[in-house]
Amino acid sequence: MKYGNDTDFIRVTRVFSYKSYADSTFTRTSRLAQDNTFSGKTDGLIALGLAKKRDLGQRYFTSQLWGEKYADITNIVWAEVHYVAPDILWKPDLGIQGFLWQKYR
């Protein structure tokens, strides 16, 4: 579910099963079944994303913050900020990203 537009939004996603590229069916198992520390079954994932664009005349900042919880596998939180100057001849887009990752064991 997404509320907002392409640059200013809140997005919440809940996935219970997935469709593999190699198969035509949906399943609750994952491609991690060959990992002996993981049973292969998953409760899916939950993701929350926020984005904001701040105009500064002809230039602007964009930012995003995401949190994703892949049940019993990992937690990921990441952020991204860009400064964009389309009024300059070579149109620079300077960005920085950061993340925090935790694997379950």
Number of domains: 1
Mean pLDDT: 84
**Coarse morphology:** elongated
Helix and strand pattern: EEEEEEEE
Poorly predicted regions: none
Structural class: mainly beta
Order of strands in the sheet with most strands:
1-2-5-6-7-8
The oligomeric state of the chains shown is single chain
**Helix proportion of residues, in percent?**
under 10%
> Could you give the count of β-strands?
8
Strand fraction equals: over 45%
**What gap, in angstroms, lies between the N and C termini?**
30 Å
Report on the biggest sheet: 6 strands, antiparallel
Number of helices: 0
Please render the helix and strand layout as text.
Blueprint: E1 2-4, E2 9-15, E3 18-19, E4 26-27, E5 45-56, E6 59-70, E7 74-84, E8 93-103
Antiparallel strand pairs: 1-2, 2-5, 3-4, 5-6, 6-7, 7-8
Structure explained in plain terms:
There is one protein chain. This protein is mainly beta. It has one domain (2-103). 0% of the residues lie in helices and 57% in strands. The protein is built from no helices and eight strands. The chain has strands spanning 2-4, 9-15, 18-19, 26-27, 45-56, 59-70, 74-84, 93-103. The strands form two sheets. A six-stranded antiparallel β-sheet has the order 1-2-5-6-7-8, with no helix packed on it. It has a two-stranded antiparallel ribbon with strand order 3-4. A hairpin with a 6-residue loop joins β3 (18-19) and β4. It is elongated.
Summary, kept brief:
Helices cover about 0% and strands about 55% of the residues.
Q: What are the main properties of this structure?
A:
single chain, 105 residues, mainly beta, six-stranded antiparallel beta sheet, two-stranded antiparallel ribbon, 8 strands, elongated
